């Protein structure tokens, strides 16, 4: 049984990696897609946005449905949708077809990704093994974006169609493996009632929220009346959802999971941290391309230190650190190293050298994120009852996606505005671009600093969080029955 559990873990993480890769692999291919299909600059953004809106909007719903109908079933359904949508993306010959297929791909990705962490927690109830398994998943969830940049650079050399077509054999292989290895859990069932109003409210709130975040960066502006109206409507839907969940008999998202300060704090920290870190992954890519003149493949290779260091820490050492020192104590120095890395990036010059000005940042990010994200994932699932594990898994993935969308929109807008002002003042383009990137990196560092303060002020050791302790006992007992 032990060997099959670890085989199931690597299979689940393989599926998650395929989903995470697709969120960034397309970025390297955007110029080729634009040339081939004739996208405008604003229209091209929707190749990314369509995926983000569907993915971020459906994670919570998919996670809860996994609890009700069975997480294995939800995982397999998501794989089918994602793989089929990837095939449609690969053969897309028009702008409309590609954007529609990317939306469908995001929906399949949400169905697949939402239940992975919940399945891992159920398979590994013993704390040490669970910490190690979550470390493997955390590496995939956080470092997959860097791997996507490298893979995108390689595949785009062949054709942009390959960045989508490569998912077809991988998705089929993972699906066959899942049928053989994953335990066929029944789920809680739908007989007690399904929270349709809650599902409509939260899906609408998240989709509209992500849409509001990504739309201004390319088209409207943050203070435009339409942006403010959409944002207010998203918040109103979210408030209505919380009010409904507090009084309905069979809630889609039981509010009891927020009783634990660690669960609530970890998700808040994750939103802010991921938003800040996007400054390095997205704008760092542009700095190397536009200022240092790196080719796409070289940019992908430049991110290898992050991937290797994160993988080593997450897979080999995170469980030892979490078990010995606790998730909170492991998280705090990780956030501090990420903060220092972003601070160093604010000093990257126009005539920068990779080994002097970029490589040290990559090392700090690799170590910092390798410490921080496994700890955050452990905290986000700490004390969650087994019956709510899919919901908590979907919530953890949602906060990561919303944080990424928020960081991309805010930091890109700030960087672009500063660059535009500098160009208008007669500053040469490389210096103007670098000035914009510096501002974004500084704001990103500020966001990570906020996350660090929240971690110190809000998070507790599990023994100091009575709600987490009680729920954790329930989860361990239920997980034994699941296995």
UniProtKB/TrEMBL annotation:
Keyword field contains Transmembrane helix: yes
Coiled-coil ranges per UniProt: none
Membrane topology: Multi-pass membrane protein
Residue stretches making up the Major facilitator superfamily (MFS) profile domain: 8-463
Membrane-spanning segments: 7-30, 42-62, 74-97, 103-124, 136-156, 162-182, 194-214, 220-244, 265-287, 299-318, 330-348, 354-377, 398-417, 437-459
Keywords linked to the UniProt accession: Cell membrane, Membrane, Transmembrane, Transmembrane helix, Transport
NCBIfam families linked: efflux_EmrB (TIGR00711)
CDD domains reported in the protein's UniProt record: MFS_MMR_MDR_like
Pfam families in alphabetical order: MFS_1
Main location: membrane
Annotated localization: Cell membrane
Keyword Transport annotated: yes
InterPro entries recorded: EmrB-like, MFS, MFS_dom, MFS_trans_sf
Name this protein carries in UniProt: MFS transporter
A GO molecular function held by the record: transmembrane transporter activity
Single GO cellular component term: plasma membrane
